[in-house]
Amino acid sequence: MSTVSNTSHFNAIQQEVAEMLGFSLKDLESKTLRAERLRNAISNKKVIVLLDDVWDEFDLNVFGFPLTKSDVVEYCCKIMYTSRNKDLWLGKRTITKKEIGLDLLSCEETFNLFKRKVDLQYDDIDFHWKNEKARKIVEECGRLPLALGVVGGALIEKDKHVWENMFYQLRNQGRDQHKKKDKQGLGNKLSLFK
C-alpha cells in the first residue's frame, strides 16, 4: 500500500510496490525504464496495488501498472484506491470501476479515537482543559482518522501550550482541496478497478 496524497511522488510509490514484489528501482532514473521494469514484474503475477489518499487522476499505465491484458502482459493488476474525489478515472473504457462509499466516523467515534490516540486520562492535571480542546481539534480534523492519528500522535504527553498551538495551526491553515470537495458533497470513496 502506498500513500499518494496531493504531492504525488511516483518514484517513491513505484519503489514501494517494487519492494513488495521483491526488487528495487532505486538504480533507475528514467520514468520509462522504471515503468517497464515494474510492468514486467507484474506481468507474470496476480497483483493488487493499494493506493491511499489519491487526489488527482493520473495515467496508471505510464507508471507501470498494467490495467489490461496484452500480448506482452499476461496479467493485469487490480488497483484499489481511496479518494475523496468520486470522479477519478471516469469515462475510461479500459477500466471497470466499482465504488464503495465510506461514511465518516460519527462525532462520538471520532472523539473516542482521538482521546485514545493522545492517551487522555482523567487523572491528567489538565484533563478538563485538554478534553475541551480535544473536541475543537477533532472538529478541525474533519473527522478523518488519518488526520486524527497524526495530530493525536503529535500531542501525546504534551503540555497545554502545545495543544493550543496545534489547534491554532489547524484552525488557521488554508483550506485544502479535500475540505473544498467535502463541502461540494463528495464523501470518502474506496474504489476498485477490476
Q: How is this structure best described in words?
A:
The chain is α/β, with parallel strands linked by helices and 194 residues long. The protein has helices at 10-20, 31-42, 107-118, 127-140, 145-155, 160-172, 177-183, and strands at residues 2-5, 48-54, 78-83, 97-102, 188-193. It folds into two domains: 2-83, no CATH class; 107-177, Helicase, Ruva Protein, domain 3 (Orthogonal Bundle). It has a five-stranded mixed beta sheet with strand order 1-2-3-5-4, with helices on one face. Helix 1 (10-20) runs parallel beside helix 2 (31-42). It starts with a strand and ends with a strand. Residues 174-178, 183-187 and 189-194 have low confidence and may be disordered.
Briefly characterize the structure.
This protein is of the alpha/beta class and 194 residues long. The protein has seven helices and five strands; from the N terminus they run βααβββαααααβ.
List key phrases describing it.
2 domains, alpha/beta, Helicase, Ruva Protein, domain 3, elongated, 194 residues, disordered C terminus
Distance N to C terminus: 17 Å
Number of separate domains: 2
Number of strands: 5
Q: Any idea what the shape is? A: elongated
Question: What are the low-pLDDT stretches, counting only 5+ consecutive residues below 50?
Answer: 174-178, 183-187, 189-194
Please compute the radius of gyration using only Cα atoms: 20 Å
Q: Helix/strand-derived class?
A: alpha/beta
User: The biggest beta sheet, please?
Assistant: 5 strands, mixed
The total of helices stands at: 7
- Estimate what percentage of residues fall within beta strands: 5-15%
What's the helical proportion of residues?
A: 40-55%
**From N to C, what is the helix and strand string?**
EHHEEEHHHHHE
